Amino acid sequence: MPDQTEPEIILYDLACTKNVCFSPVVWRIRLMLNYKDVPYRTVFLEFPDIEPTLKGLGVATGESVSGSKHKYTVPAIQHMPTNTYMMDSGPIAQFLESTYPDPQVPLTSELGREIEAKARGVVGKVLNTSVMPREIRILSPRSQEYFRRTRETSLGHRLEDLLDPDKEEQDWHAVDEGMRAVNELMRTHKADGPFVLGARPSYTDFFITGALQSARVVDEGVFQRIIKYPGHEEIYKACLPYMEKKD
Questions:
Q1: Cα separation, 216 vs 70, whole angstroms
Q2: Of 25, 26, 105, 206, whose CB is crowded by the most CB atoms within 10 A?
Q3: What is the pLDDT along the chain (247 residues), one digit of tens a residue?
Q4: Cα separation of 191 and 204, whole Å?
Q5: Residue closest to 93 by CA, chosen among 31, 44, 51
Q6: Quick count: other Cβ atoms within 10 Å of Cβ 140?
Q7: From CA 43, how far away is CA 212, in angstroms rounded?
Q8: Is 178 within 8 Å of 118 (Cβ atoms)?
């Protein structure tokens, strides 16, 4: 039976042909909303529609450390009770934690910061070469054109060039040791529970699970490569109850 609760949050997400969330950064926010049981509704946007839609809503982009304007991106939210708009997973997570403090989601910890930094350096690198070029397969024709044009301009070559089987295998082999090290960090408090800090999830768990679920939606084979590491698998399985609402 559909949920009849009036949404307090409108979540702007990235559209794909599977009609489910596949963006790792949006999954972080979706996991928080699901864990905190905040009623929300999703608006899926195609890649070329993100900027005009958010600009039309008056969403502030803010500035980077260098003073340049941030690009329009998802996740973005509208908080209905206060008619507040914002974008980027970091500020949104802070807003949700202050607005809906129960149950608590620790946004940062010394262990969490170490895991996130090392995961970006190790797992992020190989996901970029294994997931990103396959992402185009689950996009609509309009988004495919936008994605190919912007990514290939940045890369300087075709997306398909990243998918050389031998090179991809070498890349995964090269990060194995680093993956194992991150995996052990994830299991630091395994005696207390399946999450990074033990019995209850933190934002770092949603950071990890968001990346894993993104990989899974894009390509099951890539997901299976990561989930073979026990720390990743334990956190992912522990977060499954908070992934039931994915659209």
A1: 28
A2: 206
A3: 345 589 999 999 999 999 999 999 999 999 999 999 999 999 999 999 999 999 999 998 865 444 445 689 999 999 999 999 999 999 999 999 999 999 999 999 999 999 999 999 998 888 889 999 999 999 999 999 999 999 999 889 999 999 999 999 999 999 999 999 999 999 999 999 999 999 999 999 999 999 999 999 999 999 999 999 999 999 999 999 999 988 8
A4: 18
A5: 31
A6: 15
A7: 22
A8: yes
- Residue pointed to by tokens 């989601």: 105
SS3 109: coil
**Rounded Cα gap, residues 135 and 215, in angstroms:** 9
pTM over 0.85, yes/no: yes
Q: How far apart are CA 216 and CA 26, in angstroms?
A: 15
Give the three-state DSSP class for 120.
helix
Pairing of strands 9-14, 40-45: parallel
Sign of CA dihedral 127, 132, 137, 138: positive
